[in-house]
Amino acid sequence: MDPLLAKALSGEGFFAFPGLLLLRGPDAFSFLQGQCTRDLRRLSGPAGALFLNHKGQIEEAATLFPHPEGFLLAPWGTLAGLRNRLRRYLVFDQVELVELPLFRLLHTDGREEVTEGAEGALPPELYPLYALLRGQPLLEDVRGELPQSVGLLHLVDYGKGCYVGQEIMARTEGKEVHYRLVGLRALEGGASGELFLEGRRVGEAKRLLETPFGVLGLAVVRKEVPFGAVVEGGGGRYRVESLPFPEAAWSGRRSSA
């Protein structure tokens, strides 16, 4: 696995994620415009988008692709999760959701495309480790959080008009949020959950993963917690680090930290 990890971190290769939704119909544009955080009027190529709840918290996320019949949506979580999220808001809209046996290819140089096959893709089990080292959260890491708190504000187009969660986004525009996404390096391994600094709750460990460089993780913590601080929770102790992890520029040597 190490040579493949080095390849991915150097910007070579791609990951393949199966299953896309085709959203089509007379109301496809207006329906999707009222659901996601991106302004479809600006969409000219692949673009990441968030689907929020009425509190402005992340529920789902996907990459949007323009399509002659409407839009292709490649879920960042599960196809069923994204489909159910959209169906929940379908009332009188003339919209059809069609599951297609296509693949979203995520190149490690940042490009994304849709194909019918996935030959030559990096092993899917490598992606969580690759994303962790790069400081890129999975949907499960950020679900229930505000986009501002997890570094995903760039996926929100302000001024696009009404969509689910837009009121909260408008209220918080330009305002400082109290939390941020950080890395964790285990000094003593534990479980995900609440994190404490000097006995005070300061955040939550979202994901911990055994890696070739020790146990690493992602957390959402209060901004006043400095990098280098040691936090505790779930039976473990962790040093708070900035993202991406230095191992993202992997040289082939395992860290002893």
Can you describe what's shown?
- This protein has 257 residues and is an alpha+beta fold.
- It folds into 2 domains: 2-168, Gyrase A, domain 2; 178-249, Elongation Factor Tu (Ef-tu), domain 3 (Beta Barrel).
- The protein is built from 6 helices and 12 strands.
- The strands form 2 sheets. It has a 6-stranded antiparallel beta sheet. A 6-stranded antiparallel beta sheet has the order 8-9-10-7-12-11.
- Strand 2 (47-52) and strand 3 form a beta hairpin.
- The longest helix has 9 residues, at 79-87.
- The two termini are 20 Å apart.
Brief account:
By secondary structure, this protein is α+β, with helices and mostly antiparallel strands.
Key terms:
257 residues; alpha+beta; Gyrase A, domain 2; Elongation Factor Tu (Ef-tu), domain 3; 2 domains; six-stranded antiparallel β-sheet; 16% helix; 37% strand; disordered C terminus
Topology, element by element:
Layout: H1 2-9, E1 14-24, H2 28-33, E2 47-52, E3 58-67, E4 70-75, H3 79-87, E5 96-107, E6 112-115, H4 127-134, H5 139-142, H6 166-172, E7 179-188, E8 193-197, E9 200-211, E10 214-222, E11 230-233, E12 236-241
Antiparallel strand pairs: 1-4, 1-5, 2-3, 3-4, 5-6, 7-10, 7-12, 8-9, 9-10, 11-12
